């Protein structure tokens, strides 16, 4: 049976909202309500929990949103980072290329109200590869160090404009996702529902002869950014009211995170991320156990 027909049996309803914890980062409450039961949760930041990056890296601009502070970032322009295109083609390049791109995008937004079709994005850039001063501006949160075993698997910076997008995927470890600037919307599916959606799309493509071999459900780089699999996943997650989106409508959750807010994503929960609005969007995340 085709994936669209199977999805059609689940019925339809509006996406539910991710639960929000209290305004203070209570470690015991986080363990009890989110970490141990493996439930997504939104956590507002405050006081000592706001990383120095939020106040040091960004300035207001003439259009909506924030821009990178050119004076602060100029001292890092020669640092080598891994940048990504809209199709997730990754390459090593000086940070100056990303800084120039973001500056140009802000200029075009101010003049024409739209962005160019080209995209440069700092995606899943390991914090350990950044200059030491930038690393110091993103200290590991206490919850990451104390909620579980204290094992931080990896940490990454995501920096670009509001056109940034990450398709549906799942991670093998719990994830604390923190928004530093701008806004992003995330849509999530519990493991079983996400597995069913991914397998159904794979089966459909296989039957149509459009899939050479079954793919992995993990973060898959360029393969998950372009092609028929990417198109079907995007339709299922983001195009509400279509037959493909019924599983997301039945079991999915949505949340918008703004600067100085965080989101806990349990391991194996499927999620997709989109930038919202204008200006720079910056996020950092820690995968931990």
Question: Could you explain the architecture of this structure?
Answer:
It contains ten helices and 15 strands. It has helices spanning 3-7, 27-35, 53-56, 70-73, 95-112, 132-136, 142-146, 191-207, 228-238, 246-251; strands at residues 16-17, 41-44, 58-60, 66-68, 80-84, 90-94, 122-126, 152-161, 165-169, 175-181, 183-189, 253-258, 261-265, 270-276, 280-288. It has a single domain, classed as Cupin (Jelly Rolls, Sandwich). The radius of gyration is 19 Å and the shape is globular. It is of the alpha+beta class and 289 residues long. Mean pLDDT is 85; it is low at 1-8 and 110-116. 29% of the residues lie in helices and 29% in strands. Strand 3 (58-60) and strand 4 (66-68) form a beta hairpin.
Quick tags:
alpha+beta, 15 strands, 10 helices, Jelly Rolls, 289 residues, disordered N terminus
Number of helices: 10
CATH topology: Jelly Rolls
Cα end-to-end separation: 38 Å
**What's the SSE pattern?**
HEHEHEEHEEHEHHEEEEHHHEEEE
Measured as a percent range, the helix fraction is 25-40%
Name of the CATH superfamily: Cupin
Query: What does the largest sheet look like?
Result: 6 strands, antiparallel
Report the strand count. Answer: 15
Q: At the first level of CATH, what is the class?
A: Mainly Beta
Low-pLDDT runs of 5+ residues are 1-8, 110-116
Lateral arrangement of strands in the main beta sheet: 2-13-10-15-8-7
Arithmetic mean pLDDT: 85
Overall outline: globular
- What structural class do you assign from the helix and strand content? alpha+beta
Q: How large, in whole angstroms, is the Cα Rg?
A: 19 Å
Strand residue content? 25-35%
CATH architecture annotation name: Sandwich
Q: How many discrete domains?
A: 1
